[in-house]
């Protein structure tokens, strides 16, 4: 029963990541996918969180209402969001147990910013190397990060609320993470 519950929740969270990505696809760099994948990693553990992140982002990027991304960028997005799921599974429990709530919120916000910056560096570097332009790689990467400043700010704010969400979900996590 527990294995079925974990599999069902994994599928539902993957679908939620896909739908949330589609819902905000027309708004440049405003997204909730990173928070959803992080929380999925917390709820399901690092391995299942990675699978939710990879599958959810993979589906979103492949079937994006704005158009599919090219294969190298798609692969990089899948890997980056698998990493977000792993980080949620590893860092989430630490954030949920922190007694100092303001510190937990600030650390969560910094974690969200760090994951978005990691994602942006990887995606911009992959894009540069496969579709190079006349500028240096660092100009290209930092230009992409400057464009993504809205995504960074959005996640900085959203992740402030993550520790509270994790504390509310902690009972369910204990039931799900113990499943082999």
Q: Which overall shape is indicated by the principal axes computed on the Cα atoms?
A: globular
Helix and strand element order: HHHHHHHH
The average pLDDT is 92
* CATH topology assignment: Arp2/3 complex 21 kDa subunit ARPC3
**How many structural domains can be distinguished in the coordinates?**
1
Known CATH architecture: Orthogonal Bundle
Broad CATH class = Mainly Alpha
Q: Provide the helix percentage.
A: over 70%
| Strand percentage | under 5%
Overall number of strands: 0
Unreliable stretches (pLDDT < 50, length at least 5) are none
Largest beta-sheet characterization? none
- Rg estimate, integer Å: 16 Å
3D structure, described in words:
The protein contains eight helices and no strands. It has helices at residues 2-23, 33-44, 46-62, 71-97, 101-130, 137-147, 149-158, 162-177. Helix 1 (2-23) runs parallel beside helix 3, helix 2 (33-44) crosses helix 4 (71-97) and helix 2 (33-44) runs parallel beside helix 8. It has a single domain, classed as Arp2/3 complex 21 kDa subunit ARPC3. The radius of gyration is 16 Å and the shape is globular. The longest helix is centred in the middle third of the chain and has 30 residues, at 101-130. It is mainly alpha-helical and 180 residues long.
List its traits.
180 residues; mainly alpha; Arp2/3 complex 21 kDa subunit ARPC3
Compact description:
This protein is mainly alpha-helical and 180 residues long. The protein is built from eight helices and no strands.
């Amino acid at each position: 029963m527990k294995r079925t519950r974990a599999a069902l929740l994994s599928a539902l969270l993957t679908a939620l990541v896909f739908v949330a990505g589609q819902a905000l696809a027309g708004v440049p760099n405003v997204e909730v996918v990173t928070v959803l994948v992080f929380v999925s990693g917390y709820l399901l553990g690092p391995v299942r969180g990675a699978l939710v992140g990879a599958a959810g982002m993979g589906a979103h990027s492949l079937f994006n209402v704005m158009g599919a991304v090219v294969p190298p960028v798609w692969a990089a997005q899948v890997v980056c969001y698998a990493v977000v799921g792993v980080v949620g599974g590893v860092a989430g429990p630490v954030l949920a147990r922190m007694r100092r709530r303001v510190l937990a919120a600030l650390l969560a916000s910094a974690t969200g910013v760090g994951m978005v910056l990691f994602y942006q560096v990887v995606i911009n570097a992959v894009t540069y190397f496969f579709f190079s332009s006349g500028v240096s790689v660092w100009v290209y990467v930092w230009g992409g990060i400057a464009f993504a400043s809205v995504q960074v700010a959005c996640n900085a704010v959203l992740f402030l609320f993550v520790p509270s969400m994790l504390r509310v979900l902690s009972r369910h996590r204990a039931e799900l993470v113990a499943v082999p």
